[in-house]
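If your schedule permits, I should be very grateful for your opinion on a structural question. Please examine both parts with care and let me know of anything in them that strikes you as inconsistent. The record follows directly beneath this note:
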Amino acid sequence: MLLVGEDWRRTFDSMEQEAWRLETLPAYGVPQEVEAIRRFLAGEPVTREATQPWFDRVKAYVAGGRSIGRVHIVTQPLSDYLRFEFEHYRHNVEAGEDVRILDVTNRPNPLDGVQDFWMFDRRQVVLMHYEPDGTQISREVYEGEPEPFREYQRIALVESVPFEEYVKGLDA
């Protein structure tokens, strides 16, 4: 089953404890971000106001006792898109999202071949399908057992570092 529109939002809103994401791509083709990326590359900052809808949702989830987390697998040098996305992550962390980075620049990727996904309450998995350029094709509810995805989450969490720790290393 594919998730679109309000069904996608309801999936988030109906989670009881946790929404967690694995991101594997160096860039995502999001049409709504084209102008914001252009401004970022021209030197304009990514303001919290620009990220306000997600910021508010994360804050509300966290205030209600639920958690949001993600691990993004990256290699250096970071793509322009990742540098832009990292500015969003700063606001996500401020809102209470647990953002972590798994840098595989100088080591094997322990999750090589695993596609992007969201997992809700460690029991519902939504596979994220993308074109090679990062344009989203669809979101598909996974019909199998979630155990492999729980293991992917475990590996990602063990092998990654908190976002703020990662970016301190970039600034050094």
